Model the fold of this input.
Amino acid sequence: MSETRGKVRVGADVGGTFTDLVFMHPDGRTDKRKVPSTPPDFWRAITDGIAAYTRDERIEPGDVQEVVHATTVATNAILERRGAKTALVTTAGFRDVLELRRIRIPLTYDIDWHKPPPLVEREWRFTVNERVAASGDVRIPLDLHDLDPIVEAIKGAGVEAIAVCLLHSYRQPEHERRIGEHLRGALPGVHVSLSCEILPEMMEFERTSTTVTNAYLAPLVGGYLTKLRKELREQRIDAPLLVMQSNGGLISSGFAAYRPVTIIESGPAAGVVAAARVAAASGYPNVITLDMGGTTTKASIIEAGHVLRASEYEVGSPISVSSRLMRGSGYLLRIPVIDVSEVGAGGGSLAAVDPGGSLKVGPQSAGAVPGPACYGKGNTRPTVTDANLVLGYLNPDSLAGGSMKIDRALSANAILEHVARPANLTLNEGAYGIHAVAISNMVRAIKTVSVERGRDPREFVLMAFGGAGPLHAAEVARALRIGRVVVPAGPGVFSAAGLLAAEVELHSSRTVLAYERDVDESVLGDAVSEMRRDLVQRLRDEGFQERDVITHASVDICYKGQSSELTVPLPGPEVTAPTIEAAYAAFEAEYERTYGHRGRNRRFEIVNVRMVATVPRLSKDTSARDTEPGVTSAYAARDAYFGTQWGLLNTRVVARSALSSQPVAGPLIVQEYDSTVVVPPDCTAARDEHGSIVIEVPGETG
Done:
C-alpha cells in the first residue's frame, strides 16, 4: 500500500489466551487482529500488535487517536493472589471483619469447604481508638499519635498499599481523611485507599472488602498502565488511553490506576456494551449474551433494550457472579457492574476423567502458554479446543487466519490418553463428551443470570461471540430451549469492538437511610444535586465539557426490616414526592419479577442514592464494515462429528459472505478469521442486513 490511511482508533481486549485488536477508521471501516497474549507482560501484545498494524498499513503513529483498553490484569491478580502486600487500618474492635465476612456458605454440605483467605493477613491489620456513631456524631475523637506504631511497623516491611476503613465513615469521613493524609505523608510511595472515597456506603464488611481489594490491586494495575503508556509513547503514540470499567463505561487510565476495583470485569463488560448496540439495531429487545474465550465463559442479559446491572459482585469464586443466591466463595465487591456470570469454561479449559469416572472440564486452563495440546508447546492434556479440533469443527491446520499453526494428531493423542481410553470410549465419543460437558458449564452460567433472577431464557434471543462462543451457541440454545441464535460480525474480537462503542462514565453513591414516612424530599434532593456536581466537576477535570454530561439518578430500596435492596431509577431531574412514589412502584415491580411476589407490608426504606454521569463520545452508527485477513468465500468440506444421534457427517465449510437472507440447512461450518460458527444438522443459518448470522434452533420455545 502506497498511501497513508489516516486517523485510526484502537480497541484492545487482553484475554488469558488471545489479545484482540480492532482498528477503526473515520469512514467506519474496521480491521481486526488476533494475537497470542504475552503473560506476564500482557501489555506487550498490545504494543507489538499496534506496531505491526501501523507498519503494515503505513499509518503514522501520531495518527492513532486513542487506545481503549480492557484487561484481565486485576482479575488475574485476585485469582492468583499476586496483588500488593496490603495493610488495613480500622476502628478498634473491627480488626477481623474480613475474616468474619457474611454468613454465606456456597456449598452447604461440603465439610471440606474453606472460605477464601483474606487479602490482608491478620498481622497487617491495625486498629485505632476512635468511634463515630451511625448518626455521624463523634463518640471517641481520633488521636493521630495512635498511628505512630502503625507507621513504624509498616516501614521496611514491604507493604505497598494501605486500606483505611473506619466504622460509619460514610456518615462522617473526617477521621479517615486525616488518617489518609498522615499516612501519605509518613509513607511516601505507599498507596492509600480510603473507604469514604472508594465506597461511602453502609455495611462494614462490604465497604472493607471493596476498599481492601482496591488497595490490593492499585500498585499492580498502576504499574501495568504506566508501563503500557510508556511503551506507547516510545512508539510515538501519545493518544489518550482509556480503560473499560465493570459497569460498561470508560475512565482515564489515571483514574483506573487509582480506583482499579472498578475495572475487574472490564473485558466482559465491553462485550455486553457491543451486544446491546447490535441488539438495538437488529430489533431484539431481550437478549442473553454468551461470550466464550480461551479461559472463561461469560453470560449476561439485555432486557427491554437495557443492560441488566447490579451493585455487588463476587470475584474469585467458581462462578464469578452478582447473584444473591451464590455468595461466600469469593471476594465480595460492592461496585456498580454489568450483571455478568462467569465460569471457568473456555477453549483452553482442561478435561480429565476423575477417580469416580466422571468427565470434568475446567476450571483449570492451559491458558496462552503452553495452550491446548494442538499448539505443540508442551501441554499433553486435552482441552475444549482440542475436542473441537478432533470433532472437525475447527480448521485442521491453523487458527486466526493461518497465523497460528496447530496439530490435530496432538489433540487426538491427548484425548485418547486422558479421556477416551479411561472412559472406554472411541476418540470421537471422548471428544464429543468434552464438548457436551463444556456446553453444560455454559448453560449453568446463563441460568445464573436468567433463571435465578426470575427470567425465562425461552423469551430471549442468544447472542454468541468470543473466539469459541459461536461454535457452541446452537447446542447451548437447544439446552435452554432458546429458538434463535445471533452471531454478530467479528465475533472473535467483539469485545474489542465494544470498547470503541462505549461512553465515558463515572459513578457515585451515598448512604441516606430514609424511611418512607420520614423521607425529606429536600434532603434527598440535596444529596442528588451534590453528587451530580461532584461527578460533573471530575469530568471537567478530565477535559470534558459540562454541556456534554448526562446524569441519571437511582435509589436502592428495600421493604422496611429487610437487609437486601434492589436498585431502581429515580425519574426526573428533581426529587419530588411523585418521583419518589414512582421509585417505590418500580421497586415493587422489580421485587415481584425477581422473587415472584410482593411484600405484604408496603413500608419502604431508601438506603442509598446512586448517580451516573455519562459523556456520549461518538456517533452510534452501527454500519461499520469489517475486513478479514486471509479469508475466502468457500473452503473444502470436511467430516464433522455431531454426537451419537447424527454421527460423522460431511459438512460444508463457508465464509460468512457466502450466506444470504435465505436460510441454509445444516450441517454447516462458517469459518472466519477470528471465530468459527457451527450450525448443527437440524438447524438453519442465514445472514441478516446487519451482517449477523441468524441460526434457527428447532424445539420448544416460549
